[in-house]
From TrEMBL:
Entry keyword annotation includes Kinase: no
Top EC class, one word: hydrolase
InterPro entries: AB_hydrolase_fold, Tannase/feruloyl_esterase
Entry protein name: Carboxylic ester hydrolase
Domain of life of the organism encoding this protein: Eukaryota
Entry EC no(s): 3.1.1.-
Entry keyword set: Calcium, Disulfide bond, Hydrolase, Metal-binding, Serine esterase, Signal
Length: 595
């Protein structure tokens, strides 16, 4: 197989030039004429990466006409889209995996000299083809990779242990940063060849993804300064050891204190927090736009005694998010319920009160603390989140256990701290993804647009603030705050998204940044700096559905005011010192600085 690939590679390399030229005024070529297996084989990026051997026979290509792209959180609806759907595989001789890459290339008449890489979520390196429309709609080829983990529905956790039980370095590094980089280099060259671009024509290159995909974006910006002209990074699950293991915190404190609040009681607290904090931003609209002010003034005692009542819910068998059935729940919120809610949002600390990681902002959901109902005993117990369990067992301990932590009941808050320290050290160079010096990317002219839902209950918003501030301080240590901020903002802007949850809107009137790619395209290709970030109210429950809004660039924060004509306006202002400081942490549980 490898021999035949080498053979075809050289034959095709020789013919590619002529074929490419024949369509070089490619905007006049029809999609049907270029979207063939033959033409794609001739356009393969055969020599793009040393040590990568493309299997020419693996190519699939089919034209898709007049498709409708239903609106998602990251692009509005588009009709009448036509593209070439391409897959092929490659290997690294001497290593054992076979990687499949998947690209959509726009119809030649719609191509605008752009390429987009996309990423995954959770333990997935890919979102299958769900993010690819967001490139096609803007005249960009778009790519995703299975990382070599066994297909586009596979998770890295399926293959991270070798058959003999040891950790697979190949898989860890492929997931950490290698596969996205390869997919990008191959995708850019495939695009150049397919559209017959001369070497001197600019191909603008972009990245866009959220969550694990956000971490993957940072992994590239930190290491491969010329892969992207613009990277759009949402709620990155970066600072990997802290982030993955923090998902065990809610269960840990429930187990440690033996208190299991009913999920309905925690929801009642969340709603009451929304009621208390909604007006603090100057606009009572069912949304907390200033979770920092909420944190500073929250009256926890007010929640004790609230009534709650929830209907029974059925079990969900979704393999990615199985949820047990819950019985009907009603009662009044107790001081114990409030204590667990408070400790959950407070995030991990040690028994001595040293801080291990950042807090979640008040107003977020409590998913990591949601107890599970045991129908046999009628009792509630803690729920171990898979993201945390698999990182602890597969990655750190190299044990083939994915549904429980066998010794969890012996853990204390200090055990969690120690596990984070172990995971951090073990994967510092590959998964931690917090390298704070982006000079090479800046010098190559790259731009970053980074955003994070303020009410994200999975990846805390403050974790993104911490990275932005690490970059600012590391790159411009001698400048004043304002000067260093201006210097960073020349190439990197960060926005908190009012009322948004994890990579999606949450509170009904959330203004969500649905048009990040066109905003980034304007920044990169026309120099239009995104001083505020374009956002749209996109939830059907919104009172203001479809309204445009502008998100403030960190550290500026929204302030709403209503004038005598009852007109509400929004300004972006520097927060008070106390509000600013509520986002900043001294992670004193570790002797090493956490970037
Ligand atoms: C193809 O294009 C290259 C450079 O763009 C040029 O050198 C070459 O002569 C062209 N070949 C044909 C057959 O037109
Ligand atoms: C494209 O799709 C739309 C909606 O599905 C349909 O109304 C229209 O006739 C199609 N156009 C072509 C050229 O097929
Ligand atoms: C794209 O190609 C893959 C692989 O052949 C196939 O599974 C998928 O259904 C195709 N998608 C479309 C929209 O044609
Ligand atoms: C891990 O456990 C799963 C399920 O029991 C099994 O299918 C798999 O082969 C095991 N892997 C290793 C490396 O032992
Ligand atoms: C376990 O398997 C991996 C992958 O096949 C191999 O590289 C490694 O040497 C093996 N380790 C042991 C202890 O056999
Ligand atoms: C591409 O640009 C280089 C450097 O400016 C120049 O030497 C070369 O002739 C150009 N090639 C083409 C095909 O225009
Ligand atoms: C809570 O429910 C009890 C009994 O149903 C009722 O007497 C009480 O007034 C309710 N309290 C509030 C604050 O609604
Ligand atoms: C508990 O089990 C009973 C009997 O099997 C069933 O009717 C009920 O729906 C179950 N409740 C939950 C919350 O699973
Ligand atoms: C809640 O947590 C904060 C720290 O985040 C603490 O100062 C406060 O006393 C706690 N309140 C209650 C009721 O536990
Ligand atoms: C259920 O919880 C109660 C009180 O928390 C405890 O006494 C009892 O042993 C538990 N039952 C089972 C079967 O775990
Ligand atoms: C900004 O969002 C609005 C909708 O809220 C949209 O119409 C407009 O095209 C967007 N601007 C850019 C640059 O994408
Ligand atoms: C001001 O506007 C709000 C919401 O649009 C409305 O509910 C309220 O009645 C208005 N107040 C006055 C004094 O017009
Ligand atoms: Ca509000």
């Amino acid at each position: 197989m490898a021999l035949s690939s080498f053979f075809w590679a050289s034959v095709l390399a020789a013919t590619a030039q002529a074929v490419t030229n024949s369509t070089s005024s490619s905007s006049s070529a029809s999609l049907a004429s270029v979207c063939t297996t033959d033409y794609v084989q001739q356009s393969l990026p055969i020599d793009a990466i040393d040590g990568v051997v493309i299997d020419v026979d693996s190519v699939t290509a089919n034209a898709v006409y007049n498709a409708t792209f239903t609106a998602s959180d990251f692009f509005p609806q588009f009709n009448g889209q036509s593209y070439c759907n391409v897959t092929f595989t490659y290997t690294h001789p001497g290593r054992e995996n076979t990687v499949t890459v998947w690209y959509w290339l726009p119809a030649p008449s719609a191509f605008k000299n752009r390429y987009l890489s996309t990423g995954g979520g959770g333990y997935s390196i890919t979102s299958q083809d769900s993010s690819l429309p967001g490139g096609i709609a803007y005249g960009a080829s778009a790519g995703t990779t299975d990382g070599g983990f066994g297909g586009f529905n596979a998770q890295v956790t399926d293959v991270v242990l070798n058959a003999n039980g040891s950790l697979s370095d190949e898989v860890v590094y492929s997931f950490g940063y290698r596969s996205i980089h390869e997919m990008t280099v191959l995708g850019k060259q495939l695009t150049r060849n397919f559209f017959g671009m001369g070497d001197n024509t600019t191909l603008y290159s972009y990245y866009q993804a959220c969550s694990e995909g956000g971490r993957e974006g940072w992994s590239q910006v930190q290491r491969f300064p010329t892969d992207f002209d613009g990277a759009i990074i949402g709620a990155p699950a970066m600072r990997y050891a802290h982030q993955q293991l923090q998902h065990l915190w809610g269960a840990l404190i429930e187990m440690y204190y033996g208190i299991y609040p009913k999920p309905c009681a925690l929801s009642a607290i969340q709603s009451a927090v929304l009621d208390q904090c909604d007006p603090l931003d100057g606009k009572t609209d069912g949304m907390i736009s200033r979770s920092d002010l909420c944190f500073l003034s929250l009256d926890w005692d007010a929640f004790i005694g609230l009534n709650y009542s929830c209907e029974a819910t059925a079990a969900s068998t979704n393999p990615f998010n199985p949820v047990a059935a819950t019985p009907a729940q009603s009662g009044t919120v107790t001081a114990d319920d409030v204590r667990i809610a408070n400790l959950t949002w407070d995030g991990p600390t040690t028994l001595n009160g040293e801080r291990v990681y950042v807090r979640w902002q008040p107003g977020t959901g409590f998913s990591d603390a949601d107890a599970t109902y045991n129908n046999a005993t009628g009792n509630w117990s803690y729920t171990l989140q898979t993201l945390g369990v698999e990182f602890a067992e597969l990655f750190i301990r190299e044990q083939n256990v994915t549904d429980t932590i066998p010794d969890f009941e012996e853990w204390t808050p200090d055990t969690l701290r120690d596990m984070i320290y172990l995971g951090w050290q073990k994967f510092d160079s590959v998964l931690q993804t917090t390298w704070p010096d982006l000079s090479a990317f800046r010098d190559a002219g790259g731009k970053v647009l980074h955003f994070h839902g303020e009410s994200d209950g999975s990846v805390p918003a403050a974790s993104s603030v911490r990275y932005f501030e690490s970059v600012r301080k590391t790159m411009y240590p001698k400048l004043s705050y304002n000067d260093s901020l201006a210097a960073v903002n020349d190439f990197y802007r960060f926005y908190l998204v009012e009322g948004a949850g994890h990579c999606s809107p949450s509170q009904c009137n959330t203004p969500f940044p649905q048009t990040n790619l066109p905003v980034m395209i304007e920044w990169v290709e026309q120099g239009v700096e995104p001083v505020t970030l374009n956002a749209t109210v996109i939830q059907s429950c919104a009172t203001d559905y479809g309204a445009n809004d502008q998100l403030c660039s960190w550290p500026l924060r929204p302030v709403y005011s209503t004038n005598s004509n009852n007109v509400t306006s929004k300004t972006c202002e520097f927060p008070s010192e106390a509000a600013f400081n509520s986002w900043i942490y001294d992670l004193d549980a570790f002797p090493i600085y956490v970037y």
